[in-house]
Amino acid sequence: MVEVIDTLVVTDDERPPSSGPWAAYGASAAQWDDWKWQLRNRIRDLAGLERVFTLTDAEREVVARIGGRLPVGITPYYASLIDPTDPDDPIRKTVIPLASELLVGPGEYVDPLGEDHDSAVPGLVHRYPDRVLFLVTNFCAVYCRYCTRARLVGHTGEFHFSLTQHKAAIDYIAAHPEIRDVLISGGDPLTMADDKLDQLLGALRAIPHVEFVRVGSKVPAVMPQRVTTELVRVLRKHRAWLSLHAMHPRELTPEFRAMADRVADGGVPMGSQTVLLEGVNDELPVMKSLMQGLLTCRIRPYYIYQCDPIHGSAHLRTTVSKGLEIISGLRGHTTGYAVPAYVVDAPGGGGKIQLLPDAIIGRDGDDILLRNFEGGTYRYHDPESTVGMTL
Ligand SMILES: *Cc1c(COP(=O)(O)O)cnc(C)c1O
Q: Is 149 a residue of the active site?
């Protein structure tokens, strides 16, 4: 980008530092737009946090005591979406630890979904009949405090899941013709280099029975600079879908929208996944604005997750009735495409279970009684039904 300021032609590197969010981070606009700069300059510790945020005493204490737990990791871009002085900022709660993170509540686990138990080979979870979850890296651009894989990510080195492990997983998939769908996740697969991702997707695509491949990633929201046209070309080449993690309408910045245009124009379908979190997105207007905003970016809302019960997540979890209330407030009130499925991933490896507000009120003779989105009761003549039928 080149901009004309006061008749002088100024390139990005010379742009006055007061002209963008990058100013506070001492970056030029060109550096800010470079995803490798964003990764290299992640906020990783107390000193880094204090450079940008006004921390509360509690936040300061927790970060100092985090030890071997899930580390802090925030890209400068994502940090710039957070109000540095507001401890109740919704995005802040998802990336800066709070005291409650050190507490373990009832019903909380290290591996709530029993993924380690269902691992066919290290890094490959084969739980459902026709599809697998393939964890290809333990590295993320940003560490979410509610991460369901806090036990795996952010610790040893950059790429904990080695190429040897990738090979074992790929061999397993090749040997199981029932696997037609591979979900690539981690860690965050989009932190891998383009050529590594190209090789990995190519290896999966070379397996004749693998007909559907998707990449799960939070990178589009926390480092949209990473989703370059070159990366989009790699995804399209392998006919992969992009399943992106979106938490709050404030994430839908001009950078995010430009990223979504690159992906959609590049021919890669997108869906979104959102974790329902207390004080972040558990108000209907916030969730509605996020879902509608995603649609304007050509992203189809796919799932809203009940927050998994990992250790130290109680302060972020809502009740299930809150989730049902949000679904009731969306269905019928807005575009059907903006209404995702609300799911609980059952602790112990039961898989995703969709929860819906009850629409069938009961039966009256040959009619079933249904509740509509406004709470009105409607009859549907349904004589063939065996619901409540007596012989
Ligand atoms: C979520 C998940 C999948 C994909 O499930 P879909 O409902 O098809 O999106 C596959 N395997 C595991 C272990 C999962 O957790």
A: yes
